[in-house]
From TrEMBL:
Keywords on record: Cytokine, Disulfide bond, Glycoprotein, Secreted
Entries under Pfam families matching the protein: TNF
Highest taxon, organism lineage: Eukaryota
Signal peptide: none
Subcellular location: Secreted
GO terms under biological process: immune response; positive regulation of B cell proliferation
Gene3D superfamilies: 2.60.120.40
InterPro entries assigned to the protein according to its UniProt record, in alphabetical order: TNF_dom, TNF_Ligand_Superfamily, Tumour_necrosis_fac-like_dom
One GO term describing the cellular component: membrane
Record-stated family: Belongs to the tumor necrosis factor family.
PANTHER family named among the record's database cross-references: A PROLIFERATION-INDUCING LIGAND-LIKE PROTEIN-RELATED, PROTEIN EIGER
Name used for this protein in its record: Tumor necrosis factor ligand superfamily member 13
Length: 92
């Protein structure tokens, strides 16, 4: 049985790279599927170089599914605080 879920992801970036973003992936039985992407322009001035990237969508998740938030930059400036960067799922 599959569950219908609302998935919400927000990441707060603190970086002067011209764009930042992330990909939400689903893994099940060795298969990886990209569900959502978020791309955000960033200010070039380090004193104000903060921006959030938020995305949400409704997806079916099978038992055994795992969700992953992937930031495809090794040196990305991510603020890891509960109120700023999070993944939430709500059953519909």
């Amino acid at each position: 049985m599959r569950d219908l879920l609302l998935c919400c992801v927000q990441v707060l970036y603190k970086d002067t790279t011209w764009t930042m973003g992330h990909v939400i992936k689903k893994r099940i039985h060795g298969t990886v599927t990209s569900l959502m992407k978020c791309i955000q322009s960033m200010p070039s001035n380090i004193t104000v170089a903060q921006n959030t990237c938020y995305t949400a969508g409704v997806h079916y998740l099978e038992p055994g599914s795992a969700l992953e938030v992937s930031v495809p930059r090794k040196s990305a400036g991510v603020v890891l605080k509960a109120h700023a960067t999070f993944l939430g799922m709500f059953s519909i």
